[in-house]
Specification:
Elements (H helix, E strand, L loop, with lengths): L3 H21 L9 H7 L1 H11 L3 H19 L10 H8 L3 H23 L11 H14 L6
Helix pairs in contact: 2-3, 3-6, 4-5
Length: 149
Amino acid sequence: MGLDFFRVALNSLKDARLIRLIRVLEDDSQTASFWYLLKANGSQVRKAAKSGGLDIVWLADVAARLKSIRDKTFVHIDKGSVFDPDALYKAAGLTHADLERAILGLWGTMQALHRDALGEDLLGDDYDATDIKQLADLRDETLGIGRAE
């Protein structure tokens, strides 16, 4: 009650982050993903990955574990998994920390590649989370939760 917005928003943000990571890590000959870059210029990408703090062997394992989630519940709806999609997430054994490590490692790698190719940093959407306090205050006000001043 009253907090449904936050639960729905959190799930939406997690889903958006996850689908983008899945897309970047898709390994298909018809897809221009991270693996395509690695195949196209392995030495430069490995150098950038080292600079960005990305362990490519570990990332390949993460990608393999995400594939089942992608194939059975996230992109497609598998008839055998439809009633318990959480089981796929549990079987993958990936934590939020793992996903963050993958995303930040990929970001650092892409930054290094962009700097090498174009001599400047890749611009991104830096999020400072200042709106969270405002949203929490609105929630508290709506629920009648006051602060002792």
